[in-house]
Design brief:
about 15% strand; TIM Barrel; single chain
């Protein structure tokens, strides 16, 4: 798998990134630690050398699973984690970093990200200058190598950039969910930031396995995903029918097609979660797909009717 630069750093990341929200087990159903561990190790074997996690995923459980899974291969991987919106004071940032270092069993976090802007979900409002000062200090100390943000709007990103060197933005981004294109994406490209797209398969809906009548188990947060709710869901099913011939031309699955579309976008990598080794290997194959300009244009046309029935709310879930 051909690696790419993270922003303007010398950190090289894989175009497909192993996402580990599900490894935290909270808000997911039927997740097994052993199976997750084997999936992470298989990801590295397949060239998916970048792993994304967060402190809030299972209150550190995901970080601990990741740390143990790559303990003997730490030199092979790039680890990205996040600090949540309720811990953005200077001292809180420092303490959160220390916890993540311990959870991950490492001396250095390659990419440390602000998970959500301060004030989100009722969290205290903290001046971004204070948060960035703490992050800059951690970088100077060698405890983190680079700083990123997640779920930031263009204005929030611009403000943060005034106080430090940010190398990436992690937004929800897929063929069906494209709010970032109208907001922060132009600034990211202008400043050379990498887009780390989460939910590139739209939490599985772009795989085609969730047809009409599907019901998620209790505790699965995808029940609140707006793409799974009407009137959007019907448009999604129509889009999937249009995408099937394109996937067939490349002899790939719909999920692989969705990942290939994201990593074909300039400066974008795709964070793909996986519950088992089989899913990991399927995700990895997407990096070998080179979509033609004609197919990208056709996919854009197919996906637009879904975006047309969405409002401007950038949050993927109706919480």
């Amino acid at each position: 798998m051909q690696l790419r630069k993270l922003g303007h750093t010398d950190i090289m990341i894989s175009p497909v990134i192993m996402g580990t929200w599900q490894a935290g087990r909270d808000m997911w159903a039927d997740v097994d630690d052993g199976e997750t561990t084997r999936a992470i190790q298989a990801a590295v074997d397949e060239g998916i050398t970048t792993i994304d996690t967060a402190a809030v995923y299972g209150k550190g459980h995901s970080e601990r699973v990741v740390g143990k899974a790559v303990a003997e291969r730490r030199h092979e991987v790039v680890i990205a984690t996040k600090v949540f919106a309720n811990e953005l004071r200077h001292d809180q940032i420092q303490a959160a970093c220390e916890r993540s270092l311990k959870n991950l069993g490492t001396d250095t976090i390659d990419l440390f990200q602000i998970h959500w802007p301060s004030g989100t979900f009722g969290s205290p409002v903290v001046p971004i200058e204070e948060t960035m000062r703490a992050l800059n200090g951690l970088k100077d100390q060698g405890k983190i190598r680079a700083i990123g943000v997640s779920n930031f709007s263009r204005d929030q990103l611009a403000e943060a950039l005034a106080f430090g060197d940010i190398v990436s933005l992690q937004p929800p981004y897929s063929l069906l969910w494209r709010h970032v294109e109208k907001d922060a994406l132009p600034l990211c490209r202008d400043k050379g930031l990498t887009i780390l797209a989460y939910s590139p398969m739209a939490q599985g809906i772009l795989t085609g396995k969730f047809g009409p009548g599907h019901r998620f188990k209790r505790g699965d947060h995808r029940r609140a995903n707006r793409l799974f709710q009407e009137p959007v869901f019907t448009r999604v099913q129509e889009a999937l029918e249009g995408l099937k011939p394109i996937a067939a031309r490349y002899a790939i699955s719909l999920g692989q097609l969705a990942l290939a579309w994201v990593i074909a976008q300039p400066g974008a990598c795709a964070i793909a979660g996986a519950r088992n080794e089989t899913q990991v290997r399927q995700n990895a194959r997407a990096a070998d797909v080179s979509l033609t300009p004609e197919d990208l244009a056709e996919m854009d046309r197919i996906g637009r009717p879904v975006a047309a029935v969405l409002d401007d709310n950038p949050v993927l879930w109706k919480w």
